[in-house]
Automatic annotation (TrEMBL):
The keyword ATP-binding does not apply. Keywords: Flavoprotein, Oxidoreductase. Residues 21-112 form the FAD-dependent oxidoreductase 2 FAD-binding domain. SUPFAM superfamilies: FAD/NAD(P)-binding domain (SSF51905). This is FAD-dependent oxidoreductase 2 FAD-binding domain-containing protein.
Length: 115
């Protein structure tokens, strides 16, 4: 990085101290769920991220939307048919059902959490 003579690079150092049972580094999906799980199990948790939780790291820009379908048999069947076609029919229904169930449960849990 080049600076001209009139610019100054100022480095401010802050003396702060935090204490927690668990330190999670990274606010992507894995980090967020690790923090939620630790808190749910009684730990005090600090989660640090270089940006805003959920908007940094590889996951945010990768376009991997959430497959959040309410537990309606017809809606889930249509969702699975659509994904099967998009994936060249290389999927297994039992795993698709598991993803639909777990995603619905987990997203609701996240929405209800106090973190």
């Amino acid at each position: 990085m080049a600076f001209n003579h009139s610019e100054k690079l100022i480095n401010q150092i802050y003396d702060v101290s935090f204490k927690a049972d668990v330190l999670v580094i990274g606010g992507g999906p894995a980090g967020a769920w690790a923090a939620l799980s630790a808190k749910k199990n009684g730990a005090t948790v600090i989660l640090v991220d270089k940006g805003y939780c959920g908007t940094s790291g590889a996951t945010a820009p990768s376009g991997n939307g959430v497959w959040y379908i309410p537990p309606d048999k017809e809606k889930r069947e249509e969702a699975m048919r659509s994904r099967e076609a998009l994936g060249g029919f290389l999927s297994e229904r039992k795993w698709m059902k598991r993803v639909l169930e777990q995603t619905y449960e987990s997203v609701n849990q996240l929405a209800e959490s106090s973190i």
